[in-house]
Amino acid sequence: MNETTEQSSRKKGTEGENAACEYLVSIGYSIVKRNFHFGTLGEIDIIAKDGDCIVFIEVKSKQAESNFNLLDSLTPKKQKNLKRVAEGYYYVNKLSDLECRFDIITVDFKQNPPEIEHLKTAFY
Length: 124
What we know:
This protein is an alpha+beta fold. It has helices spanning 3-26, 76-92; strands spanning 30-37, 43-50, 53-62, 100-108, 115-123.
C-alpha cells in the first residue's frame, strides 16, 4: 500500500469512527476513549460506556460498491486480539469487576446519510 492509499484509508476509517461516535452519543452512550492501543497487540477503535457497562467497539467502514461482508473481517484471531487489548485497558486503568461487552458498528458511506448498523455483544 503506498502512502497516499494508506492516508486515504486512515481518513476513511476516521470518518467512520466519527460517525459511529455521533451515533453512540445520540443513543445515550458516553465516549471514554478512541483508538486505545496496548503494546503491539492492536487497537480498539472506541471505548464507551452504556450505563455501567464498558463497551469495546470495533468500527468497520464501507466506502464503495462491494459484496464484502464487513462482519467477515472480524476473524477469531481479531476477536482474540481485541480481548487482549481490552484486558490491557482494564490493567492500565486499574479496573476490575466492571461488566463489559464487545460491539461492532458498521458505517456504509454508499448511503447519504451513512447507514449505521450496531451489533451489540458481537462476540464473547
